[in-house]
Design brief:
single chain; mainly alpha; elongated; two-stranded antiparallel sheet
Length: about 290
């Protein structure tokens, strides 16, 4: 794959490397966890009361807790376990789906997990009414998505027992459903875990396999360009070329990389390898062949 493109270094300014979405999520969770510990000793602000998901909070209109609860953790072990899961599931899943889809499945699963936990807390406060915090729902969503896309990949469960991703998903789903129906562990938000698992499964089925998008990221990355496209479409305008462009194989190497290869690499970074068309795959093969001839 043409990630470095060393023959282009002297022709264009260097760009700072963009961190992966998995790294960004880990950093955000770490920063909030450090702040939680500092706050508990020195500041003593009511962070958990305002941001953790709770029945009392929702009843008083603090609906932002459905989003903010996932960034808080109960302690070091809770944070470490979620960070390990996010690291080992997020990296391969991001390589398959791309940054945008990883963020969608992570936050979508977390929100659905929080919503299920909150619903049961309102209906059965005796068993589900405890405050909820942690990234477990989002991590469960990543597990579900990864297991559906890579069923035969092997994990070392508890770093000792090899288990296939699909079997791990079935095991986790079974344990979670059991403890939701038999809520004998009041300190664990099994409903949030179940919602996260269902969210990851739903995302793969409804958005990945059907080639849909949960959110149009072009409106965020290039809002002016996107608005221009909409205006041109409404006016019925089309772009015209004064003369036909030469086919890709006849372009000079530098122009070939700039016009044909760079957009494909950006697409892989944003949406994953599975999003490439047959034509784009052929262009990458042509680029690889040109590099071998140099």
């Amino acid at each position: 794959m043409l990630y470095d493109r060393p023959y282009m270094r002297d022709q264009r300014p260097r760009r700072l490397p963009v961190p992966s979405a998995t790294t960004l999520l880990l950093v955000v969770n770490l920063v909030v966890f450090v702040f939680q510990n500092i706050n508990a000793v020195y500041l003593r602000w009511p962070v958990e009361e305002e941001l953790a998901l709770s029945r009392d909070g929702l009843e008083t209109g603090k609906y932002w807790q459905l989003f903010t609860f996932q960034f808080l953790h109960l302690g070091s072990w809770h944070f470490v376990c979620n960070a390990i899961g996010l690291f080992f599931l997020g990296r391969p899943l991001e390589a398959t789906l791309g940054k945008a889809r990883l963020i969608e499945v992570y936050f979508g699963s977390s929100f659905l997990g929080g919503l299920l936990q909150a619903t049961l807390a309102l209906l059965i406060p005796r068993h589900f009414g405890m405050p909820t915090m942690g990234a477990s729902a989002g991590v469960c969503g990543l597990l579900a998505a990864f297991a559906l896309l890579e069923r035969d990949r092997t994990f070392l469960f508890m770093f000792l027992l090899p288990i296939r991703a699909w079997h791990l998903l079935l095991f986790t789903l079974g344990v979670t459903v059991f403890f939701v129906l038999v809520p004998s562990e009041p300190g664990v938000a099994h409903a949030a875990h179940l919602g996260g698992l269902l969210g990851g499964m739903a995302y793969v089925h409804w958005f990945v396999r059907l080639e849909r998008r949960l959110f149009d990221w072009r409106t965020v990355a290039h809002p002016a360009e996107r608005r221009g496209e909409l205006v041109r479409a409404q006016r019925g305008e089309t772009r015209t070329r004064s003369r036909p462009e030469p086919p890709p194989e006849e372009l000079p190497p530098a122009e070939f990389i700039r016009r044909e290869v760079d957009p494909i690499l950006d697409k892989i970074s944003a949406h994953g390898l599975h999003s490439l068309t047959e034509r784009e795959r052929r262009i990458l093969e042509q680029a690889r062949a040109r590099m071998l001839k140099r």
